[in-house]
Structures are given as structure tokens and as C-alpha cells.
Amino acid sequence: MKKGLTFFLIALSVNLIAQTKTTGNVVEYFGKEKIVTTAEGSVLYHFVNGYTLAADKKIGTLFNGQDAVAWQYAVGKFVNPDQQKGDWQPVKVDSVGVFSQKEMKSAFLFTAYNSPKEQIVLLETTGGTRTYINGLPHEGDHYDFGYTLIPFKLRKGINEFVYTKGRFGRVKSQIIVPAKSIQFTKRDMTLPDIINGENDEKWASIRIINATEKELKNLVITTKLSSGETVSYTTDAIMPLFVRKVKFKIPAAKSNFTGEVKMKITLTDKSGKVIDETEITIQQRSGTVHHERTFISKIDNSVQYYSVAPASESGQKALILSVHGASVEARNQARAYKQKDWAHIVAATNRRPFGFNWEDWGRIDALEVLAEAKKVFNTVPAQTYLTGHSMGGHGTWFLGTTYPDQFAAIAPCASYPDIATYGSDKGDEMHDMFKAFEPIRRSANSGRVKSIIQNLKQSGVYILHGDADSTVPISQVREMRQILGTFHPNFCYYEYPGGEHWYGDHSVDWPPIFEFFKRQTIPANKEVREIDFHTATPAVSATDYWVKLQQQIRPFDFSTINAKIDKEYITVKTKNVAIMELDLISLNLKGEITININDQILKTTADKKAILALQNTKWTLINEINTDQKYAERQGGFKFAFNNNVVFVYATGGSAAEREWYLNRARFDAETFYYRGNGSIDVISDKEFSLEKYKDRNVVLYGNAANNSAWKLLLKNAPVQIDNQQIKIGNKVLKGDDLAAYFVLPRKDSKTAMVGVVAGTSEKGMKATWVNNYISGITGFPDVMIFKADLLLNGLPNMKVSGFFDNDWSANTLEYFN
Questions:
Q1: pLDDT interval class at 13 (50, 70, 90)
Q2: What are phi and psi of 431, to 5 degrees?
Q3: 312-345+357-515 domain in CATH 3.40.50.1820?
Q4: Which contiguous run of DSSP H or E holds residue 418?
């Protein structure tokens, strides 16, 4: 490795006998021999020594795909630091066995273990964004959740482990021999409360460790309450060497009770043989007090939860959605609010305490909770409100401007509007010099709140901020106050004297906010006479009352629709709009309607939707949307493949290295989606995939046309074709054994489903797909990215293709670089 390389590594010497020695499960810590166990097994090895290498901490926000260790593994240049001389400096763990040097916030950690035999074990880590085990990537634990358990097979001899930089500058790692090859782990369960008087079964989830090399199918989880009620459920399949968070059901209690209830959970195979069992406690309470509820997410068919501060009086009530700050659990967010007599308050999770900054899958979680709560509590539709604190303050700005017809009023507290320009890194100025960055920046435009702030014209806004806030500067909301003052007729602004970032529950439970909310309602479509709608993409935000954007001229660039009604005459001005709809039926207009769109006159009737399409520079009325093209329900953007009950399909063809790589690559993404988004993804081989069995579901395909047999079912005539020698895009060909690609296209057998692809040419190319920062909040990923393996080291100079498919999903307007 060259001197001055802008990365930082900590390496553990293989020869650790002087500090720690192991015999079986007996570990000697600094001269004291003891047996160390965890809930899942016994500790085989704990790492204590290492080396360091200085690093540059700049990474970028929208694009951060560089990874020096990934590059070294991809091109075959990684060398065990114990076997070379260079810039490495020795380092040791602290007195509690943790690598905790301050430099590790921008560090890699290398550890190694010399195994006397081959065996399946678990790697338990805290800290580190991701982990490489013998050159294969896995998700880490950069938020120090303590959830990370990775089943893998130890090689006989030297085994290498590399942990990338840790958010909090500390890493602890040890190898565990599992007590059972298949077992429950009680780390990170998702549990509802049992609600008195409710007779339906509730969803819950628990993780199962599969420390075998076989897929587990048709396992049954039986749940029995201490009061005797029982329910069984055949749970999700679990791929080899994987820990999956799987669904099970909790029976309704027959009698009312308040307090802890013991619950026995038993895992059996299809013959009824008991594999494992455990006991947990769950809360039973009245639905009239703060409580937790669960539901099944449409993203991945996983169990998610939300917390409730229910209305203190009965009857149909208003609904307030509250979105939490970074590191805050939804249950804590809900309990910051005293119950209101006029409204239910529900707190979504953002999929995790950090989650996705309320963008990407956090945005979808908020919408799912909103829909679920409306159904469960039968709330007054016009009395729906939004508030949140810190990161949730950003979420309030973002969700409020993105879905302006969903909320009567919003109240951001201790907030900042745009996360890409907030914080010390300030985003991606270092990438602006490269043309390849423009599509990446554009694909993240939906989070640019200040560019779509006009959408709040119909919504009330209350801004609350402590004037002594040292976490989020007061300047963030003073700017928003100034912007709103130029056009908004209905907003309040209050700086709490002496208020820090958090100054007690009234940092969110501020009475004037709720008094303000009470005065606001969502107007009916017929009451909204003028709309000024701004959006970056209909994939995220398509509708503002009676206006809907279906297709853009330039994908992910900002579009505007200004529409005004004067009796039966509608004036429309557009920018970057190819197809749009007017919901005339909801406007209660009569007879013939005249539409003046960009000074062109069209005539229609008031009893149907008006679909307006720009064709050869002229506007015309069309009868229906062509779902083979891009439209609101199916747009580009690679990240959008990871939705719609997505299934991961890995290649089983090709060389042994290809088979190992693509299997692990799918596993890595599933691990990441679990860790960052509380996810539970179906991961299957290409041999198991069929169009009918997985009908209308999104698919992420790992592998190329030469090694993944599902390719010919899903992508036979796709504009991008990849094999082990080249990538063909339309009539252009890129040759090389070091090319990697991410792209997304529609499923031809579905009107809504999509296919995402993670693939490369040959071994270097497939390993160049290493970094999975697409499963991350606010990173930018257009429809297509094709790059050389050296991008992992050098960044954007090695991007070859980046951009967006045309509206007919052809590749004519993709941009080529170098």
C-alpha cells in the first residue's frame, strides 16, 4: 500500500500468544484463565493487538463509494499487515478489551486467528461499519447496537478479519462457538403489547441463527402464553450461514391483565421435532395507555412496530404522526407526549433509531405507520398532523413538503431542513469537479427540502427551536422562517429562551403546537383552487391534492406544476413535466372543462380524470397511462428496487469463486438491510426463482447473464447485458474483467415490479460491487452506474457510465465518461 493513502487501518498480529491464548473455549485474558460465554455460545477467541495507519477523513455524503480494503481484495493486492513492513504502527485494546483509539472513527481494523481446524462459528462485533471475513464482506455494527452475530466457516490456518471505520471510534470483536447450530437469539426482538379486549393475534419477530450450510425451510414457531393461549406459525426460510429476523404470532389473551406476561417460544421442524425453545416476557396493557403495536411492511414483508400515545377520551379523534431524532426509539418518542383528549399520537420508527434520516425506507415506514394508524384508530381524515424533533425535525420538513396533501399542519422542532448540507462534512463539494457526479447528485434531489418548500402553501407550519441549541444551530430555522415569510400566510415561529437541543419533554410536547394544530384541517380537493406543486421525482412525491405528476422530461430534476381554477377554466403552467393528471371528478365541476396548459387550449369534461401528455412539443389528452414506460408507480433510481416485498436472487453458475461471491454478496445486502432497516429479506438461488412464484415482487439479481439463470427470465432483452468479458449498453460495448454495474429496470411481466442488478465482469468486476452504500439514507444512485474496480480506490474518475434510462426504458441518453 502506498504511503499517504487516505485510509486508516488497525491490524492485529496473528501471533497473540503473549497476550491471549486459547484452548477449546478457555480464554486467557492478560494472564487470567477463564471460560467466557454468551447467550449464544462460548468465546473461542478475543482479539487484543493491532497496527494503525493514518487516514484522511473526507468521504462525502451523496457519494461515498471508496474503500481501500475493498479495492485491495478486489484486485488481489491485500497483504496481511503482519507479513509486511510499512506505515503500520502497533496498537492494543484498552483495559476492557476494546480498540478505542480516537483515530478509529475513520479507521479499518484488521484481526486474524490461526485456527487448528475447520469449523462453523459466529463472529460477534460491536463497532465498525462493515466486516470482511477472509475477503468476503459482511455488515458491521457502526451504531454499537450489539446485535451483530455472523455465522461463518473458519478455515484451518490463518483467518483474516477487517472492520471498517466505526462511528464512535471503538471496535470489540470475538469468535464464538455456537451452543447449537440452529437456535434463537433474543437480541433485538420486535414485540407488540398484548392489548386487553383485542381478540386478534399480533405479529412479532425474533432472530434465528442458522450456523449450518443448508437452507432452513418450513420451520414452525409456536408461542404459548403463561395463561395457556397458544398459536403456531410456519415462518420464513433462512439461507445458509445467516441470522434472519423471522415472523411469528402472539395469541390474544382471553382475560384482562396489566403487567408482564411470560411467553414460551418453541422452534420445531415440519415433523414436530423441537429444535430450540426460549422464554421471554411481553407487556399486556389497556389500549387507553401508551403502548406498542406491530404490522407487516410492504417493503420486505417484515414485522415493524410503532408506539402510541392514545387519546385520553373515546370517540373519533385526530391523528398526529411524530418522527423521532437520531438514536431515539419510537417507544421513547411516544412517551415524551402526555395524552391528548382530542388526538391519538403515533410514533413511527424510521426502521431503526438512526434508520434512514426519514428519507428512503424511513419515508416509506412513516407512510405505512400513518396508513396503519388511520385504519386502527378510525381517525378523522382531515385532522392529520406531523411533528418531530432533531433528525425527526428534518423528517417533518421532508415529509411535510413531500406529501403536502397528507397533513393539515406540521411542527418541526430543533430541526434542520436538508441533511446533505447539514453537519461538518457539508456533503460532496469534493466530487463537484467530476461530471459523473451530476446524476448522483440529481438522484438524491428528493431530499432537498428548500427546493420544494412551496408545497407547504396549504399546510400550517409551527417552528419550535431552543435559542441556545448547540447541536442544531438556530440559523437553520431562522433561514426557514425567512423563506416562509416570502409566501406563506399561516405559520408560527418560536425560539424557546435558553433552550438547548433537548430541554425536557416540552421540547416536543409544547402546548402551543397542539393548539395551533387544532385550528388546522386538510381542505377537500374542491376547496383548493390553486396549487404550486414542486417535486424531484414522482417515484417519491407525485401528488398534491388534485394534481398528479406521472412522468418527467428529465428524471430526478425538479418539476413544477402551477394549476389554478377559475370556474370551469383551469390554467396550468409546467416545468419538466411530460405527463400529468388532473383529478377533475374530485373538484365538483360541471360540464365542459377548458384547460390552458402552457398557453395551449384543451377541452374535456368534468366527469373523468384529465391525463395530459407532452408529445412532440404539443400537449394532448390521452386515455390511459402506458405502464410499460416510466410512470408514477414505477420510476428509476437503483434504490427503488429494494421495495415491494423484494426478493434477492443469487447466481449458482460459473466458477467456484463466482458462486461463493454472489451467494455472500446477497447475504451481505440482507445483513445490511436487517441491521440498518430492521429488515427481513427472502434470499434464494436462481434455481429456486420462477416468475409465477414471485409474481409482482421486486427482484434484486446478483450475478450476470453468464452465471445467473434468472437473468434470461427477467432481463433477456434488457438494454444492459453483462457477461464475464464485457458490458453491452444499447449499441455500445465496454470490455474488461474489472467492470461492475448497478442498474434497475422494470419487470416485463408486471405493471409495478422492478429488477435491480448487482453484477460485474469476471472476478475483479464482481468484487468491485463490494460497497453497498445504496442501503443507506440519502446516498445518490441513479438508474445506472457502471464503473471500474479502481473506483473503490480513486472514486469518480473511474466511473464509466452514470445516468437515467429514457422514459421508454431505453439507454439512449445515458452518459459515458473517460
A1: very low
A2: -95, -10
A3: yes
A4: none
